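Appendix C: a fully annotated inverse folding record. The material below is reproduced so that readers can follow the format used throughout the book. The structure is listed first as tokens, followed by the designed sequence.
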């Protein structure tokens, strides 16, 4: 696992552990830690504070995450939940994370659409590569409530593919390349409830996804590996899988641009075995374009004039 933090030019890359972090400069860096197993990949995200010698504490950091894989097969990984909390007709939102590109548009007073793209790829030289891709879209209903609360719900579907290739060594120490590909279709229903203002958003989502693998092909893959990954005897393409994916999303910023943090769980609701990520998280940027930002400013100006 490799992780870099930049604090005003101070590069801290040494001795990153699950419970503490040490640096050569002796900086005290308390943090909160989120670990996500996704496609055999761990995403550590650190929200840090630096205790300064002076009274004013100034933190300016850019987080760069370098993703490493434990070479574990993952056949299902939850993409980020697209929870825009639309407020009005014409509102447009675009978000980007390390693996997701998502958009939402309010086409009517209470009608909206969403589109999600997901891509994850891990590669080690020419010996190992594990990747997944997903595209989906949905339609939904949104309803602004009192005191900046919003309820919305979406239904949708999409298609995806999981691929893996790996170099193995036989009993004679000869290397050979093996690979597999699996195609799948996905359907989901997603209710969201949250609070949205110019500066801060908080959302609770409870997405339910059904996944059906429609094809699986492999070449030279060892039988024991197929068995360990639940890929033999039609264990993958036979059943229908259903996943509960509750998530919490927090966004902070000003008006059109906000930083987004999201964390969720991936719970297999069927008795069928599958190699999956147990949770997911993301950090990204959200751009939201809407008239209600200006309306809120105009209301404040009118209120101030009345007071004067």
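Designed amino acids, in order:
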């Amino acid at each position: 696992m490799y992780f870099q933090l930049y604090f005003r030019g101070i590069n801290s890359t040494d001795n990153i552990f699950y419970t503490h972090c040490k640096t050569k400069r002796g900086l005290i860096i308390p943090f909160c830690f989120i670990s996500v197993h996704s496609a055999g990949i761990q995403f550590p995200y650190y929200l840090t504070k630096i205790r300064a010698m002076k009274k004013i504490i100034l933190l300016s950091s850019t987080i760069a995450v370098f993703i490493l894989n434990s070479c574990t097969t993952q056949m299902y990984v939850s993409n980020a939940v697209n929870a825009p909390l639309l407020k009005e007709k014409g509102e447009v939102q675009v978000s980007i994370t390390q693996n997701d590109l998502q958009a939402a548009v309010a086409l009517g007073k209470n009608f909206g659409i969403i589109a999600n793209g997901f891509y994850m790829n891990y590669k080690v030289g020419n010996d190992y590569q594990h990747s997944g891709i997903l595209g989906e879209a949905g339609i939904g209903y949104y309803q602004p409530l009192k005191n900046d609360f919003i309820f919305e719900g979406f239904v949708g579907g999409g298609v995806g593919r999981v691929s893996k290739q790996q170099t193995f060594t036989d009993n004679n120490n000869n290397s050979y390349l093996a690979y597999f590909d699996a195609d799948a279709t996905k359907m989901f229903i997603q209710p969201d409830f949250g609070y949205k203002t110019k500066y801060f958003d908080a959302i609770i989502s409870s997405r339910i996804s059904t996944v059906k693998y429609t094809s699986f092909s492999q070449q030279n893959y060892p039988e024991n590996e197929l068995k360990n990954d639940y890929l033999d005897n039609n264990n993958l393409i036979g059943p229908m899988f259903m996943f509960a994916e509750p998530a919490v999303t927090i966004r902070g910023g000003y008006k059109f641009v906000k930083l987004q943090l999201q964390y969720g769980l991936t719970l297999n609701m069927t008795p069928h075995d599958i190699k999956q990520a147990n949770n997911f998280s993301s950090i990204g940027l959200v751009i939201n374009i809407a008239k209600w930002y200006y309306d809120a400013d105009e209301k404040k100006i009118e209120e101030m004039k009345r007071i004067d």
